[in-house]
Amino acid sequence: MKLEYFIAKRLVTTKNHKSSVSAPIIKIAITAIALGIIMMLVSVATGLGLKHKIRDKISAFSGHIVITKYDSNVSDITLKPIELNQKFYPTFENIDGVSSVQPFASKAGIIRTEQAFEGIVYKGVTETYQFDEIAEYLEQGRLPVFGESMSNEILMSTYIANRLGFKLGDKVNTYFMKDWGNKVPNIRQFEIVGLYNSGLQQFDENVVLGDLRHVQRLNRWTENEIGGFEVLLKDFDQIEEKGSEIYLNLPSTVDSKTIVEKYENIFGWLDMFDFNIKVIIIIMIAVASINMIVALLVLILERTQMIGMLKALGATNWTVRKIFLYNAFYLIGKGLLYGNAIGLGMLFLQKYTGVIKLDPTSYYVREAPVLIRLTDVILLNVGVVLIAMLVLLIPSYLITKISPVKAIRYD
Predict the structure, then answer these.
(1) How many other CB atoms are found less than 10 A from the CB of residue 107?
(2) What is the pTM of this model?
């Protein structure tokens, strides 16, 4: 066993250590490190969890990249048709990282009852639509099934159903305005087979999912005409790169937008979380480092006679400094142990019970989402240790200024 480690171990295990003047300061330092790692773990896990949850919800209802005909329309309604037969459908053969390409079309409508009415966006899809992502938000019933003949089954949000007094299995009369001839609206009757609740008001207040062939018939489109395509990627982190690549591979009459561009306000708000997380980490590391510096200085002053004795016996400055750095490392490790145990315990409790609720109108989710990644936990712990030890090299330099003769006489 190395001499420095042996002496450091004796210092932290001796009974006098627990009743010394430095004991309360040491406890404060350990508490600061524990609180710091708790705050960092919680901020990273909840911040990333919220980002991933919201972007997954948006991509579930809009895909990652939306391809439509060039027009000045900024709404979610597809006005100009695009041909279904495209080189990139059903797959982008020359672009890697694309999971699937699915056609859709949307049309504005009004659901009317005897007591009220509600404007909706009827989104028509095909049997190839990836309902797996939406299935997570299904509260009642089942997903619509589309076969060879046109289906009247729809998936409605719980929000719309509650506002209009509908329940599972009800028939819904929906009115669609014509863009030609007389202005008598087209009426379609749909059956509610499922109710979803995404927590995103932008979708819950408007979107009703049904058969795409209804939109084709209402708009007098052919079977080869649709509103657009939704492209799903294998890796969301490549959305900007793949978005540019897809745009360059499209015909000149076709446009594409990533959901980051389409929902710029939401993703701009999410980007603020990265800045907030960085600020919290910097502040917590600074607070923990300052407390450790104070604790180390007190330990050095408290052990001045021991330092003088060791120097008189031939110990070098670096040898003595390593004793106190080992001591500090022990305190940091103790704080990290408590902090990780409490922090991860809180995160797992939230992940599996959802005890902390959020306002969906402000945060787009009903409970605080948590994303716990082993790499994040390891990086945070290693970062705290490295930064704290580097910072502690400065106060440990005080040991080199202690004279053996004066230190031995020090009282």
Answers:
(1) 22
(2) 0.80
